[in-house]
Amino acid sequence: MTWQRAAIFGSSGGVGAALVRALADRGVEVLAGSRGGTAPKLPNVTPFAFDLDDEASIERAVADWADAPPDLVIVATGVLTLANGTGPERSFRHLDGETMARVMYLNTIGPALVAKHVLPLFGRDQPATFAAISARVGSIGDNRIGGWHSYRASKAALNMLIRNFAIELRRTRDQAIVVGLHPGTVDTGLSEPFQANLPEGQLTAPAESAANLLRVLEGLTPADSGELFDWKGERVEP
């Protein structure tokens, strides 16, 4: 698949910034979205501002895209450790309602609101892809060790929404693809507190991760819509 115009929500993060650069290097026109509305000064890259905590800002950001909608949208936002230092819970004894709600909002509701405003822009008879960064730990069937309750639950919910959106979109836009992506463990601020005990070779540089994810997306067809794929292109069970 060859994309003409891409929109990256979360372009200031490690994976998001790497996706912007990788797509720009390919000559794709890139709309790079962040809270601050800034982006790398690269050919073909145009910044835009949005805030997951403000749905109106998402609506405003995409308002000008109707005449030339992106054919690739990637939501590269997400949180594992909150800004106040609260990390993933290792036991149900550590659960806190406000923390759970915040993680669920950032990892599940925010991407869903982006989808709400972006998916209607896709052409009815034209290929287009919507992808959200998810995680293997959101797989219920693959869960063997438990823990990380809010993060797992938020990604499991995101995976369900991806399936829902794919089913709904198939009725009117059968060339569209909606998928979740598991990038593996990427060397970013999100994973930094948990890198010390990783086996050698398991940590991936952002540029390599971006290349992996784009390769996976290039190989998908509408029959794959609604699924979660890892960075190798292998399907992750729900």
SSE layout:
Elements: E1 5-9, H1 14-25, E2 29-34, E3 45-49, H2 55-62, E4 72-75, H3 97-118, E5 128-133, H4 149-170, E6 176-182, E7 185-186, E8 203-204, H5 206-218, E9 228-230, E10 235-236
Parallel strand pairs: 1-2, 1-4, 2-3, 4-5, 5-6, 6-9, 7-8
Antiparallel strand pairs: 9-10
Task: Walk me through this protein's architecture.
It is a single chain. This protein is of the alpha/beta class. 32% of the residues lie in helices and 18% in strands. The strands form two sheets. It has an eight-stranded mixed sheet, sandwiched between helices. A two-stranded parallel sheet has the order 7-8. Helix 1 packs across helix 5, helix 2 runs parallel beside helix 3 and helix 3 packs parallel to helix 4. 42% of the residues are buried.
